[in-house]
Amino acid sequence: MLVRNLQDAERTNRRVVSPDGNWESTRLLLKDDGMGFSFHLTTIYEGADFQMHYQNHLEAVYCISGEGEVETAADGKVYPIAPGTLYNLDKHDKHTLRAFKEMKMACVFNPPLNGKEVHNAEGAYELEAEAISD
Ligand code: 9YT
What we know:
Bound molecules: (2~{S})-4-acetamido-2-azanyl-butanoic acid
CATH topology of one domain: Jelly Rolls
Helix content: under 10%
CATH class of one domain: Mainly Beta
Mean pLDDT: 95
Distance between the termini: 17 Å
Largest sheet: 8 strands, antiparallel
């Protein structure tokens, strides 16, 4: 059995702060844990408005708190985000995420992240990023 606590993890290098100033993410489960996915608690800062394109990953994102929207680039559709919303990038959808109020999100990535990923110029994560060490 593997048990971790968010407050404990936030005090380690599992907490990754994006250099773009849009978000931070505490990565509670990573590739090395062998679950086949990674699981993160992510904060999207109020006012964030940025594009992502996870060409190498699928991601499910569940909103715990806050308010915002996600827009898919291919068709311009805008989906409101509120507590209880789950959006899924099932087609590696290029998208823009906007936070009107700070949002707390639970995120699952397949394949799992290694640990230290931050977005590259295209808004994707590389597959061979460095792992974190506890
Ligand atoms: C919702 C989203 O994709 N935010 C960017 C951070 C990402 N969830 C992560 O690395 O945990």
